[in-house]
Amino acid sequence: MSRPSPQAVWLAFLLSLLSGLVLQMIELPDSLSAARPLWMPLMLAYWALREPQLPALLPAFVVGLMLDVLYASPLGQHALGLVVVVYLVVRLRSFFIIFPLWQATVALIPAWVLYCFLMFWIDGATQHEAEPWLRWLPAISTTLFWPLLWSVMELIRQPGGDED
């Protein structure tokens, strides 16, 4: 059983980041927009877990800067959050991969909460007020979407059923 070629991995990585950006920009009704999953942390965490040889910190920083520009947030806010999440996932990769999917989902909750906290903290420091309880809804929805994203990405990544 063969591994995907490095070119295929990079192509899938870039396409997934692009799709994450598109999903992040899709306008949702007001009742759902506060609970939008954190698509970019989800995508980057998947690749940091699945392909440790990919240098995910630099793409996390660049995509974070893109999100800062798209949302007109302080430059570096999302970049910092994404780099911290990817760094944690990379450092704790050996811990996450030994668990079944449901346990890894629970183990990743602190990463999503940390990202939300960093966004909340930087917004507070720059006086961009929002309802505090709405700040934590993305952590919940991201946790709920993680098993779905993992399963779909695994199907896309290995369409022939090849395993490492």
| Class by SSE composition | mainly alpha
Give the overall average pLDDT: 89
Number of helices: 9
List unreliable stretches of 5+ residues: none
In terms of quaternary structure, the protein is single chain
CATH architecture: Orthogonal Bundle
In CATH's first tier, which class applies?
A: Mainly Alpha
Shape: globular
Distance between the termini: 7 Å
What is the helical fraction, as a range of percent? over 70%
How is the CATH topology named? Arp2/3 complex 21 kDa subunit ARPC3
Query: Which sheet architecture does the biggest sheet show?
Result: none
Give, in order, the helices and strands. HHHHHHHHH
* Beta strand %: under 5%
Number of strands: 0
User: Radius of gyration from the CA trace?
Assistant: 16 Å
Count of folded domains: 1
GO biological process, one term: regulation of cell shape
Subcellular location: Cell inner membrane; Cell membrane
Family: Belongs to the MreD family.
Pfam families: MreD
SSE layout and pairing:
Layout: H1 6-25, H2 30-33, H3 39-50, H4 57-71, H5 77-91, H6 93-96, H7 101-107, H8 109-125, H9 137-157
Your description of this structure?
The protein is mainly alpha-helical and 164 residues long. It has a single domain, classed as Arp2/3 complex 21 kDa subunit ARPC3 (Orthogonal Bundle), CATH 1.10.1760. Helices cover 70% and strands 0% of the residues. Helix 1 runs antiparallel to helix 3, helix 3 packs across helix 9 (137-157) and helix 5 runs antiparallel to helix 8 (109-125). The longest helix is centred in the last third of the chain and has 21 residues, at 137-157. The chain starts with 5 loop residues before the first helix and ends in a 7-residue tail after the last helix.
